[in-house]
Design a protein that fits this description.
Keywords: DNA-binding, Transcription, Transcription regulation. The protein is mainly α and 207 residues long. The chain is built from nine helices and no strands. The chain folds into two domains: 52 residues, Arc Repressor Mutant, subunit A; 122 residues, Orthogonal Bundle (Tetracycline Repressor, domain 2). Helix content is 70%, strand content 0%.
Length: 207
C-alpha cells in the first residue's frame, strides 16, 4: 500500500533576541519601580528585582552595575526622557516653560511616581553617596537644561540682560517642588501658568 505524504509544517521563525531582551529590560524596570515604592531604596536588592521580574540576576547586571543605576533608569523610563534633555525652544519662552512644567506636575500627580519620588528623597537625606549620584546624574543635568534655555532666551533679548539664570531656574522650580513636597496646595496647569506669568514679569527686559 502506497504511503501518503503529509505536508510539511511551515518553519517557525526563530525568536528575536532583541525583542526578548527589550521585554526583559522593561520587566526589570517595572519590577524595580514597584519594589522601590513598596520597600524603599535601602531595602531594595538586585535579587528581589530579579525575582519580581522573573529573570536571572546576571541579566540585570548585563545592563546595570548597581541598583542605583537601575533606579536612575526607572526615573528616566517614567519621565519619558533622559536626564538633561534640552528644553523645547520654539521662540516662545513662556510657552516652552509651561510645556515642561505641565509635564512635571503631571509626573508628580501619578501615584506610583509620587510614591517613588518620596521614597527616593527620604533615602537621599541619609545616604550621602546616593545623594551625590542623584545630584550628578539627575538633578544637575536637568537644572543645566533649564539654565541653557534661559541663557538662550537672554541672548535673544527675551529676558533682561542682567538676569542670573541659576536664580531664575530656582524661581521657576522651587515653588513647584515645595508645593509637591509639603503637600501645601494643588499642583495644576493653572498654578503653573500663574507661576510662569509671575516669574516672566520679573525677568522681562527693563524699559
Amino acid at each position: 500500500m502506497a504511503q501518503t505524504s503529509t505536508p510539511e509544517e511551515p518553519a517557525r521563525p526563530a525568536p528575536n533576541p532583541r525583542r526578548r531582551s527589550e521585554r526583559a529590560r522593561r520587566a526589570i524596570l517595572a519590577a524595580a519601580g514597584e519594589l522601590l515604592g513598596e520597600v524603599g531604596y535601602a531595602r531594595l536588592t538586585m535579587e528581589a528585582i530579579a525575582s519580581r521580574a522573573r529573570v536571572g540576576k546576571q541579566t540585570i547586571y548585563r545592563w546595570w552595575p548597581t541598583k542605583a543605576a537601575v533606579v536612575f533608569d526607572v526615573f528616566t523610563e517614567m519621565t519619558g526622557g533622559a536626564a538633561g534633555d534640552p528644553l523645547p525652544d520654539t521662540g516662545d519662552l513662556d510657552a516652552d516653560l509651561r510645556t515642561v512644567l505641565h509635564a512635571i506636575v503631571e509626573e508628580y500627580a501619578d501615584p506610583l511616581m509620587d510614591r517613588i519620588n518620596r521614597v527616593f528623597i527620604a533615602e537621599v537625606q541619609t545616604d550621602p553617596e546616593l545623594a551625590e549620584n542623584v545630584m550628578e546624574l539627575l538633578l544637575r543635568p536637568n537644572l543645566r537644561a533649564f539654565r541653557d534655555r534661559l541663557l538662550s532666551a537672554r541672548e535673544a533679548g527675551l529676558i533682561d540682560a542682567g538676569t542670573d539664570p541659576d536664580l531664575a531656574v530656582d524661581l521657576l522650580l522651587a515653588p513647584v517642588q515645595q508645593r509637591w513636597l509639603m503637600r501645601s496646595g494643588e499642583l495644576t496647569h493653572a498654578y503653573v501658568d500663574a507661576l510662569v506669568d509671575t516669574v516672566m514679569r520679573a525677568l522681562r527686559p527693563r524699559g
